[in-house]
Predict the 3D structure of the following.
Amino acid sequence: MTTKKFKLIQGLFDNEHAKNLLLELVESKIRYHKKQMLSNQERFGFDKEHSEKRINELEHLQSDLVDLFGQASLRAKAARVESDLIISFIDLDNR
């Protein structure tokens, strides 16, 4: 198996910019799952349960981020945000 790691986000941001960056990232994932769910349902008749579950998880994450940055704005003026993107290629026959 080949694995590659990339630094997706790394920096010090004021709270508003950090919140906006992370909320945009989560919103992008929600849009992706909604689009995939509709496409797969229409084209293949796939069950949309996985996408619905993931959308729900991401919506909770949005709410948690809003709460976190709301609380942090009372105590801190900046947030250090780091996020790695890890990609592993696997043989589907040997899951």
